[in-house]
């Protein structure tokens, strides 16, 4: 590993330069990535070709990021003792998942290592109560919600939200839910108690149903000196609470696009995040946007930049946490990213030598025959609903990219 980088003072904001110099971390410095999933894997790949070295800390030998990082430490990445031990040997520490305990990040901050996102940001984004409270307190547009920590509060919140005119309520666990897990729809106040029980009697955020006409995400990169660069607006389609497809560019008006980018930028500024901030939003019929949730890390929707934009989201994250200049990200060609879930890997009985965890691989020839498709696989064992990889289709128009993506997905399903 490289010695700690000497502080430099390049800054994009002359006003801030004197007050808080932002050391640029140059290659071949070492970046620690906490967590070993596909986001960590794609971060390690980007960091590697940008000339940095990477240390991935994750629990399992065969985690996707372990294949690409220069060093892999098998340990709990949320353990403050583990992070204290490695913090002096790396120049910056980042995370690829909300599951990392903020205390682990605070341990590294205490010895002066740059941590991006900070323990403060990590604390907010991993708890829906704090996240929604932060958005509301900073006048960042968000739908009606209540924080619920008891059966009585659950009852009261649902009575209030239905009285305000909502037709349905979505109850979400404050922590640990992702890809639609830990969520339950409530259609009348009489269902509130059953939902409280079913979700495990844990703290919740309950939200009025938003009658959106579309879902989008805006990813912004923010460097330590406060410079922000927004990636193009992405259009997202979810199925069963899981992202199915992302389209770049999003099919939204210029007005909505500007409002969305402005909302994401303001959110990042209030949060003072360093690195990427992905803001998922609902688009209303009048063109307004509301924040649904945010993540201080690369985001599934941003994978579409890997093949069709001038910089990938992973390159932007590395650039931001290292204090490198943040370029504008341009769309090179219209593109569609389609997630490949474990359901596409049929159970193989009896298992063959080529099967993975008792599952047969999909018939990739059916999608690779189209030269405009790129296949990205994370190397995970299939499970229903698990994100195993994604396809990116480009086209001369958004419609053409979408038609190719949908045709490829249909072929994969029929060849199962
Ligand atoms: P989340 O895990 O919060 O991102 O929610 C997953 C998906 O559920 C979102 O992308 C939406 O499609 C849907 N959803 C979440 N919250 C709401 C809401 N308040 N109203 C309507 N749909 C929602």
Can you offer a commentary on this structure?
By secondary structure, this protein is of the alpha+beta class. Helix 7 (151-163) crosses helix 8 (192-198). The termini are far apart. The chain folds into three domains: 14-115, Rossmann fold (3-Layer(aba) Sandwich), CATH 3.40.50; 144-208, 2-Layer Sandwich (Dna Ligase, domain 1), CATH 3.30.1490; 214-414, D-amino Acid Aminotransferase, Chain A, domain 1 (2-Layer Sandwich), CATH 3.30.470. Strands 10, 11, 12, 13, 14, 15, 16, 17 and 18 form a nine-stranded antiparallel sheet that branches. It has a five-stranded parallel sheet with strand order 3-2-1-4-5, sandwiched between helices. Helix content is 29%, strand content 24%. It is built from 13 helices and 18 strands. The chain binds adenosine monophosphate.
